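Please fill in the sequence for the structure shown.

STRUCTURE ENCODING:
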């Protein structure tokens, strides 16, 4: 349930908080008071596109924040799967801040993407804006409504169809990719063989590149290494060694007179031993490491070859070997193309047969569901003053498979006796579309887990008895769902469990939209305004009271 809406710096709204309650929440107001701003703000918070310049001109940012209370365990589980934090207490706050054309979306304080915001919103609220009626004219949307209604039985089969279709598409793609004429086959085999031989002839070993780079670096500086070692060795083995020997002889002659002198002598002897060891090590290094020009060229050539292969086949030897393994498989596959393709065709036939059966099952399930849905929509339409309506769903088969089956399905309707049934886009007027959509919402509300429904001017193009029937239908939906409805019809407004009025005022030379919850007396006055227009007479007030009393009685009945 939507507990509260907080809007700041959006269009004519400075800052407002709107607390909502259970059942039917009605919002009314003069034309231009800001009802559309409220709906646009909610749509933005639910991941919709923010209209250009929607943030107030005198503000640095705009903010919309929605607070929901969630009681359905399945919805809470789905929210946890979306990794929404801190929902153990059953509350979730969705917010969206607009700043310089950029937006920041959050769920319980965690920054999220707009796409994730839409996923979360779909679990919590169903918003019906004026433009949604037009979606009924798009036949592609009809099967989505059908699947949504029958999701418990349809979704498991759809999932099997999707998995099998993806396998089918993968095999078909592989089959198409490997179907080639002899000339193309020869050209491809020649290229693969060249690459295969190039890698094979290199006889690469794992880690070889690192070892050769180390040797190459050493060889590259070989001359400098030998010269420096020679100079260092000459200096150590000449004056330094003789000086140390003389110093040690002198100290040995006096070391017996004092323990401290013995310690100094021992330290100097250690230094002499270290110098001697260093001289021996450097001589051995010079003897063991000869840097010939030929060895250097061989190292350089080997390193160039490895780097060349890296540039073509992978960033390291492991990648090159993996590439080699794959191209070998491809080479063998193309070499034995006929046998390989026959195998693919056999596999495709098996998967295709399975997909045919699954699609047939899906169609059967959809048709059974369509019969139930059409009957319920027809009943709901009758309750909305379509007295002679016939309603059904037409099924056709698409030319090819899709991951959702092969069904092309769309609603057909006849609103008058003797008229043939036709698609909605050929017969339905604007007012009829509003009622058809409301009938569908009423049916879908029975199976949806979404607890909150928002209707923006669902009453477009209707009046009189039809308006009363629409009011009763909305009231019926609100018995099991929270409904927030923006309307201009008194018949619908009279059904309110909670009535809010949106108005526009000028404060400090600024036009500001505000909203207030009405008490019983204010509700009557607002109903009278909707009934009487510019002049509110005692008779209109009396009619408003009677309308409210009748609505209250209807809600009890």
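FILLED IN BY: designer on duty
SEQUENCE:
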């Amino acid at each position: 349930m939507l507990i509260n809406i907080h809007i700041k710096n959006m269009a004519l709204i400075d800052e407002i908080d709107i607390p909502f309650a259970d059942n039917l929440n009605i919002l009314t107001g003069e034309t231009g008071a800001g009802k559309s701003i409220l709906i646009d703000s909610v749509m933005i918070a639910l991941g919709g596109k923010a209209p250009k310049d929607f943030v107030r001109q005198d503000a640095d940012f705009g903010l919309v924040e929605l607070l929901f209370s969630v009681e359905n365990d399945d919805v809470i589980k789905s929210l946890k799967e979306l990794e929404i934090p801190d929902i153990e207490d059953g509350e979730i706050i969705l917010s969206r801040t607009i700043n310089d054309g950029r937006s920041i979306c959050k769920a319980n304080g965690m920054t999220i993407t707009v796409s994730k915001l839409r996923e979360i919103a779909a679990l919590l609220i169903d918003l019906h804006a004026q433009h949604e009626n037009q979606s009924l004219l798009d036949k592609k949307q009809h099967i989505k409504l059908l699947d949504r209604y029958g999701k418990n039985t349809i979704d498991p089969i759809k999932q099997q169809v999707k998995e099998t279709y993806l396998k089918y598409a993968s095999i078909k793609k592989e089959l198409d990719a490997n179907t080639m004429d002899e000339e193309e086959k020869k050209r491809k085999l020649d290229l693969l063989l060249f690459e295969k031989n190039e890698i094979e002839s290199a006889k690469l070993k794992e880690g070889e590149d690192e070892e050769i780079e180390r040797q190459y670096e050493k060889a590259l500086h070989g001359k400098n290494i030998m010269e420096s070692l020679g100079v260092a060795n000459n200096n150590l083995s000449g004056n330094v060694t003789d000086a140390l020997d003389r110093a040690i002889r002198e100290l040995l002659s006096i070391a017996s007179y004092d323990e401290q002198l013995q310690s100094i002598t021992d330290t100097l002897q250690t230094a002499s031993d270290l110098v001697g060891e260093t001289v021996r090590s450097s001589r051995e290094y010079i003897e063991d490491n000869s840097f010939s020009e030929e060895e250097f060229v061989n190292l350089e050539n080997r390193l160039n070859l490895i780097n060349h292969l890296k540039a073509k086949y992978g960033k390291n030897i492991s990648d090159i070997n993996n590439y080699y393994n794959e191209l070998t498989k491809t080479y063998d596959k193309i070499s034995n193309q006929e046998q390989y393709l026959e195998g693919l065709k056999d596999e495709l036939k098996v998967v295709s047969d399975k997909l045919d059966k699954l699609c047939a099952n899906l169609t059967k399930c959809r048709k059974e569901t369509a019969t139930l849905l059409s009957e319920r929509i027809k009943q709901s339409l009758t309750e909305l003053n379509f007295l002679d309506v016939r309603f059904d769903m037409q099924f056709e088969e698409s030319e090819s498979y899709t991951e959702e089956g092969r069904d092309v399905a769309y609603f057909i309707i006849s609103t008058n006796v003797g008229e043939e049934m036709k698609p909605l886009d050929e017969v339905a007027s604007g007012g009829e579309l509003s009622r058809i959509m409301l009938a569908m919402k009423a049916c879908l509300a029975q199976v949806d887990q979404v607890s909150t429904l928002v209707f923006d001017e669902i009453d477009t193009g209707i009046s009189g008895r039809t308006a009363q029937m629409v009011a009763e239908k909305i009231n019926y939906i609100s018995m099991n769902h929270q409904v927030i409805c923006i309307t201009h019809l008194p018949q619908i407004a009279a059904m309110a469990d909670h009535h809010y009025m949106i108005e526009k005022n000028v404060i400090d030379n600024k036009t500001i939209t505000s909203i207030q919850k009405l008490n019983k007396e204010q509700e009557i006055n607002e109903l009278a305004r909707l009934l009487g227009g510019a002049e509110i007479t005692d008779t209109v007030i009396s009619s408003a009271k009677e309308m409210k009393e009748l609505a209250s009685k209807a809600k009890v009945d």
